[in-house]
Amino acid sequence: MSVVQDRIRAGELSPHEATAAVLADLPASATSMQRVLNATGALLHTNLGRAQLSAAAVDALRVAAGATDVELDLTANQRARRGRGALDALAQAVPNAQAVHVVNNGAGAIFLAAVALAAGREIVISRGELVEIGDGFRIPELLESSGATLREVGTTNRTTLRDYENAINDRTAFVLKVHPSNFTLAGFTSTVSVRDLSALGVPLIVDIGSGLLAPEPLLPDEPDAITALNAGADLVTASGDKLLGGPQCGLLLGSSSVVEKLRRHPVTRALRVDKLTLAALEATLRGPHTPTWLALHAGPDVLRTRCEELSGRLRTAGVPASVVEAVGVVGGGGAPGVELAGSAVALPEEFARPLRTGRPAVLGRIEKGQLLLDLRCIDAGADDELYNAVTRVHLAGSGA
């Protein structure tokens, strides 16, 4: 029971005051989720929902929220291929894929491949690629739940082509190469390229993880779909809500025979995406650069200028703010070890909690006893909003 309800029942408020108090006590919207300004410097913060959708994708969601032609040909007035616009856009973005399909997330894409192609058979995979993803979920356990058996080869740090060759037999369904997108392994290591694995004579599935469709010069070690397919992969799987910058979904790109077999499998229905995802994905692929792309390519000088302007305004308002060098990261299971040079506004650490619990919530990061607000993932149009949030905390007495 809220304080407002207690006061009404106690007769402490007049009818007019009670009405005003009840209205003021109502939530801002019907969802419990709160808007957050991501000042952490992590492009793909898993706990914040990974990729921020583009304005084009948000507009597409508004269209898709009502009745749409997601499965209807309005001209012919008959059923049409579900999500054909999104699938066509994906096919155009990866022209060397013979066929494409979309499921509910990246793990779902790998699971579908396993259950459709390898149930009762073996999947050959390097021990160095038996990765754990978020919240304790492990790719090996996911694959085994499909009814497949894992044939582990090599060692944690070194796997050779001969290891794969020795493991392949008449029970082999496919070779799986998984990009360890949330950790790096350095030192005395070796892995086998997609091109070499494609020559083994069995289907090759490559999970590139973070969803790059084409090479990205700023992330030279991050695999992409076009390159993997050109190197001989029969199927590439990836996430849509990471570096692609779209909604959560799992992408399947590859040969017509493999993709069609997966598309027609009964489990596919359980992994189907809704019209909102299809609309946002299409807009992401066809629209302008996404917030993720813009944050990745934000220039250090531009970020420094924004931080200096915001810091100067805050100091004028009496807030003890300064500008420090800061390093951004991709985060969210993408490009581990890559550092993105930039700047941040430094505030006293005691500003962290009131900013985090304010409206809108502002989430920064604590380093060396300071709260750093990294502007890399915040649109320049929201700098005024960030200024207002900080000054409210200051005027309320926190950090003053």
What does this structure look like?
The protein is α/β, with parallel strands linked by helices and 400 residues long. The chain has two domains: 34-52 and 293-395, Aspartate Aminotransferase, domain 1, CATH 3.90.1150.180; 55-287, Type I PLP-dependent aspartate aminotransferase-like (Major domain) (Aspartate Aminotransferase, domain 2, 3-Layer(aba) Sandwich), CATH 3.40.640. The protein has 16 helices and 15 strands. The strands form four sheets. It has a seven-stranded mixed beta sheet with strand order 4-10-9-8-7-5-6, sandwiched between helices. A four-stranded antiparallel beta sheet has the order 11-12-15-14, with helices on one face. A hairpin with a 2-residue loop joins strand 14 and strand 15. The radius of gyration is 25 Å and the shape is globular. 40% of the residues are buried.
Write the layout of secondary structure elements.
Blueprint: H1 3-9, H2 15-25, E1 36-38, H3 55-64, E2 72-73, E3 78-79, H4 84-93, E4 99-103, H5 106-117, E5 122-126, H6 139-144, E6 149-153, H7 161-167, E7 172-178, H8 194-197, E8 204-209, H9 225-230, E9 235-239, E10 250-254, H10 256-263, H11 267-270, H12 275-286, H13 291-296, H14 300-316, E11 322-328, E12 340-348, H15 352-356, E13 361-363, E14 365-367, E15 370-374, H16 383-395
Parallel strand pairs: 1-13, 5-6, 5-7, 7-8, 8-9
Antiparallel strand pairs: 2-3, 4-10, 9-10, 11-12, 12-15, 14-15
Helix pairs in contact: 1-2, 3-12, 4-12, 14-16
